[in-house]
Amino acid sequence: MRLLLVEDDNHVAAALSAVLARHGFDVTHARSGEEALQALVPEGPGFGVILLDLGLPDQDGYEVCGKIRKRTGTPVIMVTARSDIRSRIHGLNLGADDYVVKPYDTGELLARIHAVSRRTVPEDAVTGDDSAALLLGTVRIELPTRQVSVAGATVALTRKEFDLLALLAQRPGVVFRREQIISEVWRTSWEGTGRTLEVHVASLRAKLRMPALIETVRGVGYRLVAPAG
């Protein structure tokens, strides 16, 4: 995935670019708002995600976010030291897809990058291309239309049930920490949400009629066990 990193601190940008590169990202570094806007040329290759620092030397980061949103629908994650709720709401109202407060955990940032990129509808969605679906044995998950079927029979899921299933199905066999799931699906912290996660997992198992599909890893979280056939 190509990623646009908008950060005026070269040391921070270099360290973060190295981490992102190790995780398979092709990073373009813009040191100002103007550089960021120039990188978003229509004829150029698109970016999967934009990481936007708000403390830029030439323009306010909020202003840059507004200009970016007028040019492209690429997901924007604001990265800033401003932690108050009014700043977060303002950023989201301007069109940001997520908001990460410094100092942040690199693992959480990576999880949020993957989360916002998954919410972007693939260009081939309108064609019904099978690449826009996840196939796990008899389970079929249509990402663009948010439909799930088992052996050809449609299963009605709530929004959060679908988001939870799609998250786990992206990487079958990989254990997702409870905190990570809560952050990506419910967009909140772990406190007070643990019981909600357990209820949704139980509901998915029942609706799909596959109790073994989602395995509980005691003390850690959950993982999806791909069924055979």
From TrEMBL:
Presence of the UniProt keyword Transcription in the record: yes
Listed Gene3D superfamilies: 3.40.50.2300, 6.10.250.690, Winged helix-like DNA-binding domain superfamily/Winged helix DNA-binding domain (1.10.10.10)
Protein name as annotated: Sensory transduction protein RegX3
PROSITE patterns: OMPR_PHOB, RESPONSE_REGULATORY
Domain Response regulatory, chain residue ranges per copy: 2-117
UniProt KW Phosphoprotein keyword: yes
One GO cellular component, as annotated: protein-DNA complex
Molecular function GO labels: phosphorelay response regulator activity; transcription cis-regulatory region binding
Modified residues (4-aspartylphosphate): 53
SMART domains for the chain: REC, Trans_reg_C
Pfam families assigned to the protein according to its UniProt record, in alphabetical order: Response_reg, Trans_reg_C
Domain spans labelled OmpR/PhoB-type: 131-226
Feature: DNA-binding region: 131-226
Single GO biological process annotation from the record: regulation of DNA-templated transcription
This protein's UniProt keywords: DNA-binding, Phosphoprotein, Transcription, Transcription regulation, Two-component regulatory system
Stored SUPFAM superfamilies: CheY-like
